[in-house]
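[stage:ingest] chain + small molecule (GCB)
[stage:ingest] validated
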Amino acid sequence: MSPSFSCMRTRVFGLALSIATACACLAQQPAPLIIDVEHRSTISLNGSWHAIVDPYDTGLKDYRSHIRSQDGFFRNAKPQTPQDLIEYDFDKSETLKVPGDWNTQRPSLLFYEGTVWYEKSFPYHPKPHTRVFLHLGAANYFSIAGVNGTVVCDHEGGFTSFNCEVTSLLHEGENFVVVYVNNTRKAEGVPTLSTDWWNYGGLTRDVQLVEVPERFIQDSFIHLIPGTQDQVAGWVKLSDAAADQRVTVQIPELAIERSVTTDRTGMAEFSVSDKRLQLWSPDHPKLYKFEIESGSDASKDKIEDEIGFRSIEVRGHEVLLNGAPIFLRGVSIHEEAPYRSGRANSEDDAKTLLGWAKELGANFVRLAHYPHNEHMLRMADRMGLMVWSEIPVYWDIRWDNPATLANAENQLTENITRDKNRASIAIWSVGNETPVTDARTKFMQSLVKTARALDSTRLLSAALQVQHRDGTTRMIDDPLGADLDVLGCNEYIGWYEGKPEDADKANWKSPYDKPLIMSEFGGSALSGLHGNSDARFTEEYQEDLYKHQVAMLDRIPFLRGTSPWILMDFRSPRRLLPGIQDYYNRKGLVSDQGEKKKVFYVLQKWYQQKQTQEHSSQ
Ligand code: GCB
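[stage:predict] done
[stage:export] tokens:
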């Protein structure tokens, strides 16, 4: 049988469009996302992968730019006779580590934006009544996956998980998977051409095979009913639309068990109430083991997760966690690896980053500017940190392009699908610093609508900016504010705007009766650079800026949270000052090598005061 990859579908990505026009196409969408892979039977494909750097897409297209549907690199071909012409060889190519961005693994790839082909061989023993999915935690930015020479799916978006079914392609013995990954920036992409973070390419998160029964538990949503303290509700969705299937949910610690039956779509809803339920909060991040069982015999499936129950609401200017007002003492975080630089991808990375946030006195983190890896969310659940989760609708997206909107909607949907059972997630953010125009507001409203339809238990926000200034008054009157539950606002008084002391006179107003989170403020300092507090890039300047900031923030009556920019220095292609920036954004409270700057302690002290005030007013 000659392996082929003749069917790739039309996608918004320019490359995929050309693939589509070159072949008569069937859709090759990823399969619906399987959630909670952490608690399934999996075979890790992490480790060394052979990698071919392919700047001209030679493995995909011939010299006339036609798709190589018969002899492209997905075939992982080997010469059978000395006459065979095969101009690539995965086995002889150097390797890259997965998970991992390619940029920080080889000096020659630091600035590389383009295609890299990944290949890995693995043994497999097919099991009866078992379906198998190739699951990729993330591939930045556009990827096409193939198994044993057949393309199985393609995916756009660099920060969300996807999976494709490979059951019929696997055989006894050695198998191989090839993944094409391209991180070329596109004007119509999400994000678009310009960002203030490094465009790390590659298979940046875990890759695994997930084994499930013939009919399996595809998805579930488990949450406290908003406005209650003891009522849990949700739904379970099976992998196919089978009616009258029995689904049992259990919380063993509370001896709770409910059995329900699926409807025609394979969905079953449930609700339980129990006065003994302990609610999740940053002070008491209680998680319960939650079991779901479905079917019988070959279609019997069982998964368990650790779930926290809490409610998050707004009332006027207040944010209420489990019915009580709370101030969100936060910090913004990029998915940047502590100590070694590159994309963060492990549980240890999550422990270090979130550990610093805890040390700061935070009860909240803003995971900027895209969905982070699942380790971060699970760690936040366990450590007791509320999370703002964001999609990379950043700066100047193509607001009028329907394909760009479809892409953003898809990334939002994938984000919510994967993470909706994490108690830590308090806020879905639909974007950052998007310029106010009618087209943009319509685009963002559409995202808000989608998020609300998928999850009505979380708050919605976006990082906005001041729209009008009148003397010392700053007005947060972005029209999108009307659609949000919480206003986010980024401001850089004392860094991009005026002097740190200008904050002393700033007077903040909003036309909305809604809480505000100051989602960014800050300034840069090179760790270890000392001088006068009016000298840019010194630790003293940054420290002084924060002192003025916190005094100002204390005067904003509707402020209910802060997530200053940013926990740790991170790589950015926009930061070119030699000896100071060297391609790093230096606004971190902590350097990329883990050194705490003076400013860390200013914020820590302020958060201690906030916490004391909150406790004494309860
Ligand atoms: C911002 C952006 C953030 C940048 C930051 C900065 O407003 O939201 O992504 O990194 O400013 O340092 O300029």
